[in-house]
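TA notes, week 10

Several of you asked for a full example with nothing omitted. So below is the full record: structure tokens for the whole chain, then the designed sequence directly under it. When grading your own attempts, check the secondary structure regions first.
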């Protein structure tokens, strides 16, 4: 019995006069892997209810009063890129606000997420949410990959990810931003594509199952999130939802109607490819660019005015790419924030000055 008691005292560091030696062991235990929290474990609560909650009602995005909202906004470049180049600060978001944006799309590239590590990357996202809340702009989180999740093949190295990493990313985001009204939109996957067969096949039923799994994971933590689902052909084509829509509530559908997708006349083709969906669901064009006003003496239809008129006539919210001088189509030509022709047109459009 005495031997057992002595062993207990010795093992727990309670031998008289030996408390100082027990403290380093306690610190080591605190820092040990079995005591560590998962990235994003603690929810970000600062000013969580400052902006009105956005939700889905029928085919519209609405505020708490039930009023429908057509969102206009833009994409910034990856926070990791901006921070590493010395342009990650509140002033960058002030410039975004001056463009007239009401929502900011933040593209998170898998390579940057891993390279910076989730713990450190979340610190950047928290800053973005704080600045956007203060400036009264909503945030759209975008898992910015391009490729085929079912085969594990992607267009470029920066987009390489896995199903497990994709599910994990959204679990982390959902837990960390649960209940934060500013983080209104959750874009599950930037651009699903087979790259003309180079990335292997995928069928809609597989993609539907993946998206519904992601939605289930997000909803476990954050029932209020408005989740955005992209179609095929680099997120352009929504025709599969005619027969098999996503089985979930409070969602919207994504299209990326870049000019190269169709030849003029555009409108009938846009209607066939994605516009039809607005009869039942909210649709948002989360990425397109290269928009500008018609030049004097130009003949024929001009893409910029045509796409903005079409989107707004169908009640489709929209965000243009990209508020960075290096990632085209660019809205700015330098870090003095000089607007390109596309940027000038986008600014007028966001302020409602395009007829």
């Amino acid at each position: 019995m005495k031997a057992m008691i002595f062993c207990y005292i010795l093992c727990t560091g309670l031998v008289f006069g030996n408390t100082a030696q027990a403290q380093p062991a306690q610190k080591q235990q605190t820092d040990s892997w079995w005591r560590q929290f998962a990235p994003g474990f603690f929810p970000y609560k600062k000013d969580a209810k400052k902006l009105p909650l956005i939700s889905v009602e029928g085919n519209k995005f609405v505020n708490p009063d039930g009023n429908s909202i057509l969102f206009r906004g833009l994409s910034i470049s990856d926070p990791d890129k901006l921070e590493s180049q010395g342009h990650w600060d509140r002033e960058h978001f002030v410039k975004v606000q001056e463009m007239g944006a009401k929502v900011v799309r933040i593209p998170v590239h898998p390579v940057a997420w891993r390279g910076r590590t989730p713990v450190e990357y979340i610190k950047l996202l928290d800053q973005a949410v704080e600045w956007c809340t203060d400036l009264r702009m909503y945030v759209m989180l975008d898992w910015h990959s391009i490729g085929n999740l079912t085969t594990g093949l992607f267009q470029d190295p920066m987009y390489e990810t896995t199903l497990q990493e994709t599910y994990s990313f959204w679990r982390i985001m959902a837990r960390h931003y649960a209940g934060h009204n500013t983080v209104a939109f959750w874009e599950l996957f930037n651009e699903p594509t087979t790259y003309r067969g180079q990335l292997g096949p995928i069928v809609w039923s597989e993609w539907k199952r993946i998206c519904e799994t992601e939605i289930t994971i997000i909803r476990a933590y954050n029932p209020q999130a408005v989740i955005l689902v992209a179609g095929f052909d680099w997120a352009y084509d929504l025709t599969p939802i005619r027969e098999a829509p996503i089985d979930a509530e409070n969602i919207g559908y994504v299209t990326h109607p870049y000019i190269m997708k169709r030849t003029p006349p555009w409108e009938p083709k846009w209607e066939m490819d994605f516009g039809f969906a607005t009869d039942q669901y909210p649709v948002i064009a989360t990425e397109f660019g290269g928009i500008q006003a018609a030049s004097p003496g130009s003949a024929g239809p001009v893409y910029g005015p045509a796409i903005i008129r079409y989107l707004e006539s169908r009640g489709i919210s929209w965000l243009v790419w990209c508020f960075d001088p290096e990632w085209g189509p660019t809205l700015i030509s330098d870090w003095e924030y000089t607007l390109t022709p596309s940027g000038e047109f986008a600014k007028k459009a966001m302020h409602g000055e395009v007829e």
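Confidence is low (pLDDT under 50) at residues 1-29. Use that as a sanity check on your answer.
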